């Protein structure tokens, strides 16, 4: 059974940093794109960052230069380093898997498995 387990959320102040982790289990994920999305109350789930098995990454304009996505294929884990957090980054963050993908797709419906979600709250 495929599972994604996330860790690392929390409450921080503006300007602080957090690192989110997402570990996949149940099969090998070496061919998959892994991405982070976020969802604020009343909003749709939006793309934050994605990374291919080879390490190519993309970011949304709102986090570019502040967030860094990385992955450790040996550990089936993807990370999201979030620096200089701002109140508008407050949301539930989800990692997702796009199986055997050749490109990073920024649409949530593309992803077939999600983690449980992590609350990230940034106070001003």
Structural descriptors:
four-stranded antiparallel beta sheet, 11 strands, mainly beta, seven-stranded mixed beta sheet, 124 residues, single chain
Would you kindly provide a written description of the structure presented here, covering whatever features stand out?
The chain is mainly β and 124 residues long. It is 0% helix and 49% strand. Strands 2, 4, 5, 6, 9, 10 and 11 form a seven-stranded mixed β-sheet that branches. It has a four-stranded antiparallel β-sheet with strand order 1-3-8-7, with no helix packed on it. β4 and β5 form a beta hairpin. It starts with a strand and ends with a strand. The model has no long low-confidence stretch (mean pLDDT 94).
What secondary-structure arrangement, pairings included, does this model have?
Layout: E1 3-7, E2 10-13, E3 18-25, E4 33-39, E5 46-51, E6 57-59, E7 67-72, E8 77-82, E9 91-98, E10 113-114, E11 118-123
Parallel strand pairs: 2-11
Antiparallel strand pairs: 1-3, 3-8, 4-5, 4-9, 5-6, 7-8, 9-10, 9-11
Put simply, the count of helices is: 0
Query: What share of residues are in beta strands?
Result: over 45%
Class by helix and strand content?
A: mainly beta
Helix content: under 10%
Tally the beta strands.
Answer: 11
Q: H/E order of the elements?
A: EEEEEEEEEEE
Low-confidence runs (pLDDT<50, min 5 residues)? Answer: none
The outline comes out as globular
What average pLDDT do the residues reach? 94
First and last CA, distance? 40 Å
Largest sheet: 7 strands, mixed
Radius of gyration: 13 Å
